[in-house]
Specification:
alpha/beta; seven-stranded mixed beta sheet; five-stranded parallel beta sheet; 22 helices; 32% helix; globular
Length: 672
């Protein structure tokens, strides 16, 4: 693409910002220390492209440079950086021992920082409460000693049924300190959903709250906790965190008693690939996959992401709206690795008003604020005015994930938050607990695009024959291993489910399940899930492209588009719409929806029907249930199409089951 053909970016970092970025300092250091390609001050885009190419072509050298740059402490040194590049099966830093929690708490040993905030906790009362580095380290030391007293040993599982509160961070770090394996869910999950997850890993200790506050209401969880204790026979202890002020249930231990001692933590030195935590897939079509990631792999990947791509370090404040049931909580807590103050918000994203998250960013002086694309679009529809209503002068970057941020979302952030705002739409997954592409502080931002693939991530777009393509839609694949890829799935003999999940379509290559375009100028566009892709007359389109156009209309609150391959070779593409209050799905609105899609996307992707629904069904982590709905529309029974415990409102799915049954019966009659 020639310079004349390059589209104008929405935002570009100034020369001073580029020079001050930690990524720039790392690049210059890597040139001198490890032979990385030299940087050009006149060509930030070319400089990053060259650095990225070096990071994937010289994979071992790159990850060795990350170890050095961030001063990773190995108690026992590794015998190599990478023992084989095969996927699955790559072995990173064999022979090395270390501890994630030791690195997360290093800032407490700096006298200049010990009494500064490690955590800032905010709830719906909106009064930030700090926990300083020294206090966090003391609590972790006390709790880790108590876990050892309870018999918790390296490899044992410790689980949390807890909201996004400081106690959750302390419990996780204490578990990592003793070499135990952490796993957590949010307390809005019902007992069945939690047991579907925790029973797989057989935990020995459960941390739990008595309830939580959300949307201005109190939600008691004492009965759910009783069901969890009954359903987890491997538990040796339950630790009660009295968030609502109730007494501990019979036989449970009190949080305050376990965190009272002034004890220096003793960090268990474990193998690089020793499990750090278990995360879970959404579990929409069966039991959630229990994804195991390693202490060392997560340590290096998150140091790279937070310290270089997010440009965060000591003195910065990192806020991401999340719950403990989403991988972004784990990513957020890793801000401690770079000495960053982590902002924990426990409450509704839209209470007392749609703009609540912007108030939290103001109150905490957040430098990087992360949220969902859906929240940004909700603010746009509600005509929120963050720049007018809040002091966001500290804010350098707004990051979004969960789904692709539509172009209108980019423009709204630029216009209503700040013109000089770094907008980082990022994409990755629970599977690697990180980003494949997204934030780069030295690059421009183009509307509707992710800035670039991340360092050390050999990101490609493959056509159906497994050939790499540029400037056209293909499968998102990663062709070299990443340290944070799962070391395994829990209870997966022979890694059968692991291989089936990622390596079946292209053996030896990670297929993630998203449609992606890598542009010739180095940016990335995500089009939605490839297993729910719309394919009309040979033209493929991601569902996110449809949503971006449809939900721009003020009458449409949310939508769900499904492409159904029919037995006789036909293709049915309905669009389901949840209307905004006061709107009506009449012929005029249907015509406007069709006209917008025809004009802005493709005549082939105008829906066959537009159908009103009460609400769009989601997973518990907020993703639209495209694939299960497709199966229901193809006639699959509800109990076979989806795991009810993974859905926010299973009753919403009965409509699609009935519609699928009606269509199947109609087809059968037509054949007779």
């Amino acid at each position: 693409m020639t310079a004349a053909q390059q589209p104008e970016p929405l935002w570009k970092p100034g020369a001073d910002r580029i020079e001050q970025a930690r990524l720039t300092r790392f690049h210059d250091w890597a040139v001198d220390r490890h032979g990385a390609p030299a940087r050009s001050a006149d060509d930030p885009q070319g400089s990053y492209a060259a650095l990225h190419r070096w990071s994937v072509e010289e994979l071992e050298t790159f990850w060795e440079s990350i170890v050095e740059w961030f001063d990773v402490r190995f108690d026992t040194p590794p015998t190599a950086v990478l023992a084989g590049r095969g996927m699955p099966g790559a072995s990173w830093f064999p022979g090395a021992t270390l501890n994630y929690a030791e690195h997360a708490l290093r800032s407490a040993l700096d006298p200049a920082r010990a009494d500064t905030p490690a955590l800032l906790h905010v709830d719906e009362e909106q009064r930030p409460e700090p926990v300083d580095w020294a206090e966090l380290r003391r609590q972790v030391g006390s709790l880790a000693a108590e876990l050892r007293r309870l018999g918790v040993r390296p490899g044992d599982r410790v689980c949390g049924y807890v909201p996004n509160i400081p106690q959750a961070v302390t419990a996780f770090l204490a578990a990592a300190t003793v070499g135990a394996v952490w796993t957590s869910t949010a307390p809005d999950f019902g007992a069945r959903s939690v047991l579907d997850r925790f029973q797989q890993v057989e935990p020995v200790v459960l941390f739990t709250v008595d309830g939580y506050r959300y949307g201005g209401k109190t939600h008691d969880r004492t009965q759910t906790v009783a069901e969890l204790r009954e359903g987890l026979p491997t538990l040796r202890a339950t630790v009660h965190i009295p968030l609502l002020g109730t007494a501990a249930p019979e036989g449970a231990l009190e949080w305050a008693d376990l965190t009272a001692a002034d004890t220096e933590p003793v960090f268990e030195q474990v193998a690089f690939d020793h499990p750090l935590w278990v995360l879970y897939s959404s579990g929409t079509t069966g039991l959630p996959k229990a994804i195991v990631q390693s202490q060392g792999g997560i340590l290096l990947e998150h140091l790279k992401q937070i310290g270089l791509h997010c440009d965060l370090g000591p003195g910065d404040r990192f806020f991401w709206f999340t719950s403990t049931g989403w991988m972004m909580w784990n990513f957020l807590v890793s801000g401690l690795l770079t000495g960053t103050t982590v902002v924990l918000y426990d409450g509704s994203p839209g209470y007392p008003g749609t703009d609540a998250q912007w108030r939290i960013a103001e109150l905490t002086g957040a430098h990087l604020y992360g949220t969902s694309a859906a929240y940004v679009m909700a603010c746009r529809k509600a005509e929120a005015r963050p720049a007018r209503d809040f002091d966001l002068s500290a804010l350098r970057c707004v990051a979004t994930t969960g789904s692709p941020l539509p172009p209108d979302g980019f423009r709204w952030l630029h216009e209503e938050v700040a013109e000089d705002l770094w907008i980082a739409s990022v994409s990755g997954g629970t599977d690697v607990c990180s980003c494949f592409a997204g934030a780069v502080p030295t690059l421009p931002v183009h509307t509707g695009e992710l800035q670039a693939p991340c360092l050390g991530t050999d990101l490609r777009s493959y056509d159906p024959q497994g050939r790499p393509v540029v400037d056209e839609v293909g499968e998102l694949v990663v062709t070299n291993p990443m340290p944070s890829m799962p070391v395994r799935f829990w209870n997966d003999p022979g890694d059968a489910r692991y291989r089936e999940s990622y390596f079946e379509m292209y053996p030896g290559v990670w297929r993630h399940g998203d449609w992606i375009t890598l542009t010739s100028r180095g940016s990335v566009v995500i089009h939605g899930r490839s297993d729910s892709t719309l394919n009309r007359q040979g033209v493929r389109m991601g569902s996110a492209d449809i949503y971006e156009v449809v939900e721009r209309l003020p009458e449409i609150k949310e939508s769900l588009v499904i492409g159904v391959e029919e037995a006789e070779g036909g293709y049915w593409m309905p669009l389901f719409v949840q209307l905004a209050p006061g709107a009506a799905l009449d012929d005029e609105l249907r015509d406007r929806v069709r006209a917008a899609l025809r004009a802005e996307l493709s005549p082939r992707h105008v829906p066959d029907e537009i159908i009103e629904i009460a609400a769009v069904p989601h997973t518990l982590t907020g993703k639209r249930l495209e694939v299960p709905v497709k199966r229901l529309l193809q006639g699959t029974a509800l109990e076979k199409a989806v795991n009810p415990g993974s859905v926010d409102n299973v009753e919403l799915l009965r409509f699609y089951e009935e519609l699928g049954s009606t269509r199947a019966a109609r087809t059968d009659r037509a054949r007779q």
